[in-house]
Design brief:
single chain; 436 residues; alpha/beta; six-stranded mixed β-sheet; 11 helices
Length: 436
């Protein structure tokens, strides 16, 4: 299998002499069970698993780290769970002795993910879904410390700190959330250094949103907290670990200062149209001089592409139809590879017949149509956003109009009919509750 390998220049140094033969794969944010605008993604995830098993066969890693959001929701379908456990069985059979370490993300139910941990441990699979606490509600961290070695060796050659998604109450709260998380991580690393010495490589797994991470400007499928209250100072990750294996943000990237040790592996496929230009893959970590992390990136090409018509901005219905008619015909492309597309019409061109015209143009095309949206030019959007100035105006405007303006400000397009319908249902429920 041919794999595209490249390096993060901030950390890679080909002059380093390897002093530790440990090899680790870092991945995250699989979101098994996800549906994309109503289309299931089972084939896409199976394609990724096939690729990842090929990587395991080629690279022969000592450990596979999955840093949260294994599933797309806390109550995944039986099909999603079956796919997950089948992969674990196949991967461990493919490369016996490889450790697989899994932590829960914010999309997962930590307790549900961790439920089969005792059954999976004999296979070399470790799952950490929740933080345990003692009778005084103090966090118990010993089981977050997982020693690992190279396959076939009984020596402890690295330590993985498997920290699941931290929720309010999991850790002692100090002056800020960033400082609270930092102290929690520092205590973990210090405990390892005391037990195993300062020369052993330490890998910290965490599922969080750190300041400075590049995120999409809209359609945050990561479920980021409004206002950035869950955003942590990058300083909170500067805790003495040799590598920080992050999950939560879907764009693969290194974060931090000049000597970067923290990396988001990114999701294996785009989770929204805002992520259509993201690169995908896994990180390969080895340790060089002074146990410095050497990070290679193996690129993965998802089964289905995500496209916008037009690619940027909006276009008239006439121009859009011309572009749609030039798309490949359905009988020329395998259905499993039909891309997802969105159609973006410019202001005042979303006519009553537009949806039908677009559907007709796509009847014999190799695409999965997801949505048709109206793009409002920045100048018009700005003028609409400025139409409310005073508290009196806010008192006299409907909740739906406020929602329209907020959606326009965030996404640069109008709410579609389905979203309007759902919003009106919520308003009706709230009004009914308030009148009781």
């Amino acid at each position: 299998m041919h794999n595209i390998r490249n390096s993060f220049n901030a950390i890679k140094n080909t002059n380093d002499e390897d002093t530790n033969n440990m090899k680790i794969i870092h991945t995250a944010d699989w979101h098994l069970g996800d549906s994309f605008h109503g289309y299931d993604r089972i084939e896409e995830h199976e394609h990724f698993f096939g690729w990842l098993k090929g990587i395991i066969a080629d690279e022969r890693p000592d450990a596979l780290l999955i840093a949260g959001d294994v599933f797309d929701n806390a109550n995944p379908s039986a099909q999603a769970e079956e796919m997950f456990y089948r992969f674990l069985a196949q991967a461990t059979a493919l490369h016996p002795g490889m450790r697989i370490i899994i932590t829960a993300g914010n999309h997962d139910s930590g307790r549900r993910l961790q439920a089969p941990a005792e059954l999976l441990r004999p296979m070399g699979v470790e799952i950490r879904g929740v933080i345990k606490h003692d009778e005084q509600n103090q966090p118990l961290t010993d089981d977050l410390i997982i020693p690992i070695g190279t396959v076939g060796s009984s020596e402890v050659e690295a330590i993985v700190l498997a920290v699941p998604y931290l929720r309010m109450g999991d850790i002692a709260l100090r002056d800020t959330l960033s400082n609270s998380v930092r102290e929690f991580f520092i205590d973990l690393v210090s405990k390892v250094r005391k037990a195993y010495g300062r020369d052993i490589p330490v890998v910290l797994m965490a599922h969080l949103y750190t300041a400075g991470a590049e995120i999409a400007q809209n359609e945050h499928s990561e479920r980021l907290v409004v206002g950035g209250e869950d955003c942590l100072d990058i300083h909170s990750l500067d805790v003495g670990a040799n590598y920080v294996a992050l999950g939560h943000i879907h764009k693969a990237q290194a974060v931090g200062g000049r000597d970067k040790t923290a990396y988001y592996a990114g999701s294996p496929m785009p989770m929204s149209f805002a992520e259509k230009n993201y690169s995908h893959g896994v990180n390969i970590i080895t340790f060089g001089d002074n146990n410095r992390a050497v990070v290679d990136r193996l690129a993965y090409q998802p089964l289905r592409a995500i496209k916008s018509v037009p690619d940027n901005g909006g276009a008239t219905l006439h121009d859009v139809l011309e572009q749609l008619r030039s798309l490949p015909k359905a009988d020329k492309v395998s259905p499993s590879q039909w891309p997802y597309i969105e159609v973006k019409l410019s202001e005042n061109t979303l006519t009553p017949t537009a949806q039908g015209d677009i559907s007709t143009a796509l009847q014999d095309k190799a695409v999965r149509l997801c949505r048709v949206i109206r793009i409002v030019p920045d100048t018009i959007a700005e003028s609409k956003r400025r139409k409310m100035h005073s508290l009196d105006q806010l008192r006299n405007i409907s909740p739906l109009d406020i929602a329209h303006d907020a959606y326009l400000a965030a996404k640069g397009c109008e709410m579609n009919e389905e979203l309007v319908k759902r919003f009106q249902q919520v308003v009706k429920i709230v009004n009914s509750t308030n009148n009781q």
